[in-house]
Amino acid sequence: MVPLIDSPPVAPGQRPPRRVAVFRALQLGDMLCAVPALRALRAAWPRARITLIGLPWAVSFVERFAPLVDELAVFPGALGFPEQPETDEGLPRFFAAMRERHFDLAIQIHGSGGPANAIVRQLGARACAGFLQPHEAPQPRFILWPDVLPEPRRYLALVRALGLPASSDALTFPLRPGDRDEYAALEARHGIEPERLVLLHPGAQLPSRRWPPARFAEVADALSARGWQIAITGTSSETPITSAVLGAMAAPALHLAGATSLGGLAALVARAQLVVCNDTGISHVAAALRTPSAVVALGSDTRRWAPLNRERHRIVADYPLCRPCSFRDCPYGHPCALNVGVERVVDAALAQLSRYSRTRAAAPGVLHSRGARRATEDRHAT
Predict the structure, then answer these.
(1) Which UniProt keywords apply (predicted)?
(2) 353 with 228: CB under 8 angstroms?
(3) How far apart, in whole angstroms, are the C-alpha atoms of residue 242 and residue 234?
(4) Is the Cβ–Cβ distance between 339 and 317 less than 8 Å?
(5) Any bridge partners for residue 254, and if so which?
(6) Are 12 and 145 in contact (CB under 8 A)?
(7) Nearest to 192 by CA among 382, 375, 360
(8) Tens digit of pLDDT for each residue in 130-159?
(9) Is 357 helix (H, G, I), strand (E, B) or coil?
């Protein structure tokens, strides 16, 4: 059990907080890992107005998870927070605006303590809660950072330490009608065959977390040779990476980078038989939608970041002495990537398909197995 440094902010008989701020200014995968804690907070305090202090992109997260979060307050960035330009210029105005909200409770689930705690203390809340690093002095309603726990369970530990029930650590990603409509249009245009669809997602925010595109291409060729339909996905900014995969492939594939919104990509993941990816946001989307995956995990602490279900989501990793790391670019020649061979990833992918897919694949190297292509497709690698 993670020890509570002091008494929880809501003791029996006290009124639940009406205005709650949650600080987590991070990217998609990080936010999905916080969903179980947000769900527990909402269940405990159904009438509270919960404000997420997050990155600008999280407006779409708040819209999707509206039952859990009421609004987004955009964090302007600060020194020591590399997700945005590192400057304190916007903090005075931001803190002044936050103090006008008169939060009853501000919860820090951005990280292990330190600078994140300093941000939360400036919000003007009646009480704060969060995590402490071992060298930090005890504070009321803060717990020691639970270093041995997987990411979703860290924040559930804080929720429980605050005296609230928190039983489910399952990730979720609600699909909306528009997401399904987008997928249907994508399927019609590209001739997607979901019963044999394998998604390869070679991008990641940090270069140190990317397995080489040429190796993804070899995996794609191997799976195509066994009759699976291959689609390469990514954001529009990742097109150079996805194009490098396609350019190195011998087999045909669907090139869907930049062709979907986040919701449309999630709907695509939900219909796929398998996702092969780096340890990045889409691996958490696959976990939330229960789509089997083979995850090439580079640099990260897999104990912390790998999906909780290690059977449905197979981790392929190497562990040199320099791991885990927080480097953007590996200064040591990227051994954790280069030591992961293509055969290991192919074997993991085929094992997942054998275990979880009931589909009989088509003939080797066939992109469309349903006869004539149903729509004009201009994004094939040939």
Answers:
(1) Glycosyltransferase, Transferase
(2) yes
(3) 7
(4) no
(5) 231, 380
(6) no
(7) 375
(8) 999 999 999 889 999 999 999 999 999 999
(9) coil
Radius of gyration of the chain (CA): 22
Give start and end residues of each alpha helix (H) in 12-137.
28-44, 59-64, 91-99, 115-121
Return the structure tokens found at 135.
Answer: 């060298």
Query: Which two three-digit tokens encode residue 261?
Result: 């919104």
DSSP letters for 97-124: HHHTT--SEEEE-SSSSTHHHHHHHTT-
Amino acid of residue 217: A
pLDDT one-digit tens code per residue, 239-294 = 999 999 999 999 999 999 999 999 999 999 999 999 999 999 999 999 999 999 99
Residue 11, pLDDT score: 46
Question: Which residues is 150 bridged to in the sheet?
Answer: none
Q: Which pTM does this prediction carry?
A: 0.91
Provide, for the chain, the percentages of residues in helix, strand and coil under a 3-state DSSP scheme, each rounded to the nearest 5.
Answer: 35, 15, 50
| Token code pair at residue 248 | 């190195």
- Which domains, ranges and CATH numbers included, belong to the chain? 19-161 (3.40.50.2000), 177-381 (3.40.50.2000)
Q: Biggest alpha carbon distance in the chain?
A: 68
Confidence band, pLDDT 50/70/90 cuts, at residue 371: low
Place of tokens 């689609």: 231
Name the one residue in this structure whose structure tokens are 């869907």.
Answer: 256
